Amino acid sequence: MRRTLVKWLFATYLLGSGIVWSILILPLFPFVGRNGRYRLARLWCRAMVVMMRVITGVTCSVEGLEQLPEGPFIMLCRHESTWETLAFMALFPRRISFVFKRELERIPFFGWVLVGLDMVSLDRGSIRQAHQAVTRECAQKLALGDAVVIFPEGTRVPHDAPLKLASGGVRLACATKVPVVPVVHDAGKVWPAKGWPDRPGHIRVIVTPTLPLDCTIPQELNKLAQEQMDAGLAQLR
């Protein structure tokens, strides 16, 4: 009974506060610029991290921030829940641009804010055209100094599922000549891919070392990413 109450209390807070905050900040978007819009959205993400601790007892930490390069980079990240798409904006000191499916832009309030944040939208209609468009958009965001976050498994997966990386992220790195940083976490243990958090826990995020810049063969780079992420996941199990 208590777990059900906690789950729905947090869900109500998340959805309700998201709508209210969107209504408050959307009228400001035309006047504050790209960085200002990001800072406004980041405030809500930080509040979400705090209220998740208050309501559900879930805390979080990031290990290895010193591994992040100074300039733009591509983050290959495990996608286990909704948590990382919200909390990363609060936890990472750099501006983040997620690669997200374009259908999310049609969600009232949330989608409108997402459009204003100028991230990378993916139209999954044509694979070839989608890859070309995403490569072009990602290159633009990297040129602005962003950290582009790619979920190389393509969809949300359970925490204990075997890691299977597609090569799109490393091919982008080879095309744009920017560093790749593999990242893992265990958010799926407390906030499952389909559901809400309902009990206390601690989410660990591990930033693994930047992959070698002199590795220009996508298959080899993907193998290195797989090895580092597998090693990171082993620490989280």
Automatic annotation (TrEMBL):
Pfam families membership: Acyltransferase (PF01553)
Pathway it works in: Lipid metabolism
GO biological process entries: phosphatidic acid biosynthetic process
Domain Phospholipid/glycerol acyltransferase: 73-188
Transmembrane portions of the chain: 12-32
UniProtKB keywords: Acyltransferase, Membrane, Transferase, Transmembrane, Transmembrane helix
The protein's name: Glycerol acyltransferase
Native organism taxonomy: Bacteria, Pseudomonadati, Pseudomonadota, Betaproteobacteria, Burkholderiales
